[in-house]
Amino acid sequence: IDPRALTNSPEAPLDKVLSYYRDRGCKGIGEVMLNVPVMDPLVQNLFRHAEKVGLPVIFDGSDQVGGDFGLYDDPGLPQLEHTLQRFPKLIIFGHGPVFWSEIGKLETPGERAIIFDLNGHQVGRLPSGPIKEEGVVPKLFRRYSNLYGDLSDYTAYNAISRDPEYGPKFLDEFQDRLFFGTDMCFPDMPIPLIDLLINWRDTKKMSEKVFNKIARENAIKLLGL
């Protein structure tokens, strides 16, 4: 659902559209791709009505407005945090590079996102190496029970695999709010998260219980599958 739908207004009755899809089996909203700030009144109106009708939301993120896709947030994700505060009953899934890059403290703000070069190719540098100091993502998980985590997309894999000691601990701590996903874009797209989770389960870095929750049980519970 585009936040500009119906009347292109922060007062648009988007609950009418959302409830229509919910009543016909839709389980959630997203991913929202509009390239405006998270705190844009149109986006906040979408979140308000999503909370009202009981649908979780997932959105991609960006570190710029213009020439990109995804909702813009600042370093440290203050706009996401204010949204979690404003809508405590709305489940929001963290997704994509702007979110997952902040599992650890950033070296530079430019590590937050992948951008397009002048030829239309995606370029960028994701954070790598051991997590010496936690970033805002685990702190937000601890503060806000309505923050969930979508592990699809290579950036989530990068976030939890870059530190083989910290990654399993993160999965264990937030095991009830993390969800396996694929972000499948084409049939033969590699999904390294699958092998990583299976390896950590088989080598006892994560328990069978945690593996099952992330692999399927959390989704079954939340979405009523």
Structure description:
By secondary structure, the chain is α/β, with parallel strands linked by helices. The protein has one domain (14-223): Metal-dependent hydrolases (TIM Barrel, Alpha-Beta Barrel). The chain is 39% helix and 11% strand. A five-stranded parallel β-sheet has the order 1-2-5-8-9. A two-stranded parallel ribbon has the order 3-4. The relative contact order is 0.10.
CATH architecture type:
Alpha-Beta Barrel
CATH topology (level 3) name: TIM Barrel
β-sheet strand percentage = 5-15%
Number of helices: 9
Share of residues in helices: 25-40%
| SSE topology string | HEHEEEHEHEEHEHHEHH
Counted up, domains total: 1
Oligomer: single chain
Point out poorly predicted stretches: none
User: Largest beta sheet, briefly?
Assistant: 5 strands, parallel
Strand order of the largest sheet: 1-2-5-8-9
The CATH homologous superfamily is termed Metal-dependent hydrolases
Using DSSP, what is the number of strands? 9
Q: Compute the gyration radius: what is it?
A: 17 Å
**CATH class annotation:** Alpha Beta
Average pLDDT reading: 94
Q: Report the end-to-end length measured between terminal Cα atoms.
A: 22 Å
Shape category: globular
